[in-house]
Structures are given as structure tokens and as C-alpha cells.
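re the bet — no i am not wrong, look at it urself. input seq straight from the record:
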Amino acid sequence: MNSILSDFVVTNEHRRFAEFCDACRRYRYIGLCYGAPGVGKTLSAANYTYSARLETLAASRLGAEAEWAVGAVRTTVLYTPEVVNSPSRIEQAIHMKRHQLRMLAVDVWLEDQQIQRQTWKQAATLLPPKRVEAGSRPNGKVVRLYESAATPMPPFGAAYARQRETMPDPTDLLIIDEADRLKNAGLEQMRDIFDHGDLGMVLIGMPGLEKRLSRYPQFYSRVGFVHEFRPLRAAQVRELLGRQWLPSGITLPPAGMTDEPTLAAIIRVTGGNFRLLHRLLTQIARIVEINALQTVTSEAVEAARESLVIGTSS
């Protein structure tokens, strides 16, 4: 997943998507997100999943001893159904991902406990020993004994086992990518997961997903938000290239990348499609290297376009 996110760039469309997911999380609604292939839906979902953290933590949610977890625990699960799926496999896969979040929360607790114990040991060494009076000897002299003045910490093993057993599931948003793969039985399984869990849910798919789901009133009645993930506008592509963004591992001569004919050609070919922009820039880099060009020209863009399998963006 990190390799996928290495090319991620925050755009206005991603910000809109993040606000949409935040609303589904906050109000515990089902949200539908649809968009054409290649506009960046999956990348945005992955980035949101791996950057979403617990901002506030009520004692009623993760227990009175859970203040350690603020700002540390991921709370979003991203799930992509297999091409061939069944309700039982969907349930098992999502259960496993939610269990992994629980274990991450336990790991954060464990790290915090280790820090606390190290701090306790350092503080204990600075405290003067506490004097303990023992009984008198036969000769009448009083025996002076000393012990640590630090309050002893409870046994760690039992606390860790109890934390693993009682740690609640922190999941508060479930994102389903490639939701078009879900058949009727799969949608019913998603509805059951939503009904039995205090969480929000986002389904991501192709245009027409919202129309298809509207034919299932039991599911569609739970939908609170619908969001269209749009291609980048021309001004956004200009801004992106103006910041000298390139796919990872790709280098291009800076000369020509801000030239108006070159920019216009890139915008016309890609149509704001992020995946097509990624592939076009990769092909441009190949053309530039083969021809030992010192600048990126509109001719180089056209040559790169001709080598793309998918051609121009419609």
C-alpha cells in the first residue's frame, strides 16, 4: 500500500472526498461515492484510511484507561471485495481487518505502558529510600531497614492479557472499494454489518452505482450522502504541474513543463484523469530520454499520447 501512496498528491477532489468520509463517520450514515475510472478514488480512499486517526476519545468508547490512544489509533477499515465473493467471505474478511485495528490499538497501549514503566523506574531511582523500623534486638538496639519509596507498579503480564481481551473495536468507518462487485447477497451482508455496528460506511464504485442501489429500498434508505468524485479541472492540472509534481521514479527537464502549448496538450490528452496523467508523464519521460531532449514540448506530448494503449481521455 505504501507504494501506491507514494504517488499520492492532495487535490481539491481528495479534500472533498475526505470531508464526505468525515460526514459519514460523524453521523453514522452510509455514503455512496462514484466516479469514472482513473480519477483517483482508490488512492484517496487509501490515503484517507491510513491517515485517519482518533481525534477525541471518550471513556465510554475505549474504556476509562484509554486516554493513551488519542491521536494514535487508526479507526478506518478499507476493504475491496474479491471478484468472486460470498456473504460469509465478506464477513470474515471485514472481521479480520477490524481485528487488526484492535491489535494495533493494543500495540499502542503496550508502547505507552513501556514508556510509563521506564519513566517510573527513572523516577524511583531519584527518591530517597524510605526508612522502616524493625523490632529491637536482644541488646536493645533498633534495627534500621530501608525500602524503595516508589509505589509498586501492578504486574504487567496480567494487565496486558486483560487489555488484549477487553480492548473494544475502534472502527468507526468502513470504506468499501469496488462496490460494483457486490451482488444482492453481498449488499445484504453490508447492511447487516452496518445495522449491528456503531459505524459509518462508504461504498465506492462506478457512475450508476447510486441508481443501482436505489432499487434496493432497504439498503438505500440508510444512505445519507452521495458524492461524485470528479476529474481534475484544467486549473488544478496546471497547479499540479506548476508544483513540479511527477510520478515517483520519473524525472523530466523543468524546461517546457510550464510552457502554455505543452500544458494545453497535457490537459487535452488527459482530460483531468489522474491515472491517465500518471501514464502520460511516464511516457513523456521515455520519449525525452530516447530523443535526448532538453525540454518538454507539445510534440513530445503527442508522441507519448500515441504510445498510450487507452489513447485520449473521453
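see?? The chain has three domains: 2-112+163-228, 117-135+143-161, 234-304. told u. also The chain is about 50% helix and 10% strand. so pay up
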